[in-house]
Amino acid sequence: MEERRLGPVVGLGTWRTFDRDVTLARDVVDAALDAGIRVIDSSPMYGGAESSLASAFAGRRKRAVVATKIWAGTVAEGREQFRRQLDWFGRVEIEQIHNLESWQDQVAWLERERADGRVDRLGVTHYAPSAFGELARALRTGRFDTVQLPLNPRERDCERELLPLASELGVAVIVMRPLGVGSLLRDSPSAPVLAELGVQTWAEALLKWALSDARVDVVIPATRRPEHARENAAAGSPPWFDDERRRAVERFAA
Question: What predicted TM-score, i.e. pTM, was given to this entire model?
């Protein structure tokens, strides 16, 4: 699998996946790690996903890049979330402020955690185009190393300002919802069309579509199924789509 600034280009999301089901978490994480996936994204918002993820590592923690989040309205709550994360993971490779929640208050103490080595990179996230102006303002402070945003053939608002800005600032890009929270998978092109694109599955085509933008560092499709984690990992190797193939994917996804 190709690697960019954050590691292998296909990661794993945990939104609406295994929650507190440790057995399911272990099955999915085992499949992902064995397939070469390293970046695994979570959040306190996702129920018991963080604690299940920690249990699922079972001696394999060093193989993973944990990208989790602070989702808190106060600094005290944010610090408590971070304390639990250190208990679970030892350290956090990518700590993100979820949905810009109290980001100006949270980033000050998180910068100190980064300086002290308990965090490698600081990031900020949002899913809604209505918040992209504020997301851009946060990035322009120069205090963030990563940004997480939605990108797929039906959600392209980030292409107008955020992707060019991230490129200008040297901020690594994590793509959420590369499969449209599953909505893009309801209809798949025929086997001959997939063959013409050079992929085995429609999910692979959609992930390659996002990764063919060189400004994207990693996509984090979420799944509850180990076989899907393995299939998604196949999208992480070149060749990437040229403009013609990207337009073909966009037509089928419309």
Answer: 0.96
